[in-house]
Amino acid sequence: MMGDKMRLDRSYFCQDVLTVSEDLLGKVLNMKIDGELKRYRIVETEAYCGLRDKASHAYLNKRTKRTDVMFKEGGVIYVYLIYGMYHCLNIVVNHLDVPQAILIRAVEPLDQGEIRLKKDIKTNGPGKLCKHLGIDMSYNQVDLTTSNSIYITDEGYKPEEIIKGKRINIDYAEEAIDFPWRFYIKGNRFVSKT
DNA sequence: ATTGAGATTGACT
DNA sequence: GTCAATCTCAATA
User: Fold this and answer.
1) What three-state secondary structure class fits A18?
2) What kind and span of H or E run contains A4?
3) Can you list the positions of beta strands (E) in A18-148?
C-alpha cells in the first residue's frame, strides 16, 4: 500500500543514534487513535547512547527490566514513566545489543482538527506530548516497522535549518551535559525551548 | 525495608 | 528562581 512505500524500515532504524536523531526531524509520526489516523511532524529530538553517555538509562550497557527494550534491534518504541507521572516516547535505534534511543521531545500536529491543540500548550515537552497523544506503557516495545497503529513515514519534507544544542534536564550527567545531542527545527513553534 | 535521584511539568515566590 | 507530585531502580541496611 501507499503508506508503506514511505514508511521508514528496519535498515533506517539500525543506523547510529546521532544520524537518525537529526534525520528524523521533518518525518511524520502516524498514529491510529480510536480508528482515526492522526499525523504529527517530528520537530525536536534528543539522542541517548547507552555505552558512553551518563545521561542514558542504559549507561555502561546497564540492563534492567526497564532498559531491556533499548537492547533490541532499531525500530522498536521505548516508553518509560518519568518522575512517577509522565510518559516519554523514545525510539530504539542501532543493532541488536547496542542500547541507543531517541527521545521525541516535540511534534507538530498536521491534521486540521488538531491545530487547536496548540492553544492548550503552555509549555511543550515530552511529557505533555505523550499525554496529548495518549501514549502510555501499552506502546512500550511496539515495532514501528510492522505496527498498523503507529509508524513513521518520510513524506519528503526537509527542514530549512536544524539547530543542535545541549540536551535538557540532565544536570547529573557530568561530562555528557555538554554533548550537542539535541536537535530541533529552527523557528518551529512547537519546539519546547529555544 | 528504606532512601534518594531522575530524559517533567505546573504552581508559586 | 523554587517546589512538589509520585513510579522505578540502585544503593544501603
Assistant:
1) helix
2) helix A2-6
3) 28-33, 36-49, 77-82, 86-92, 100-109
- Which residue is associated with the grid cell 514501528? A144
pLDDT in tens, A173-194: 999 999 999 999 999 989 998 8
Residue A67 phi/psi, 5° resolution?
Answer: -85, -5
The phi, psi pair for A32, rounded to 5°, reads -95, 115
CB atoms within 10 A of CB A96: 9
- Looking at the DSSP bridge assignments, the partners of residue A108 are A41
**pTM, two decimal places:** 0.93
Strand C reaches within 7 A of the A122 CB: no
Q: Which residues pair with A39 in a beta bridge?
A: A30
Per the CB < 8 A criterion, the answer to whether A147 and A76 are in contact is no
Q: How confident is the model at residue A17 (pLDDT cuts 50, 70, 90)?
A: very high
Q: Nearest residue to C4, CA vs C1'?
A: A83
Give just the sign of the alpha carbon dihedral A67, A151, A12, A166.
negative
Strand B nucleotides, any atom under 7 Å from protein beta carbons: they are 5-10
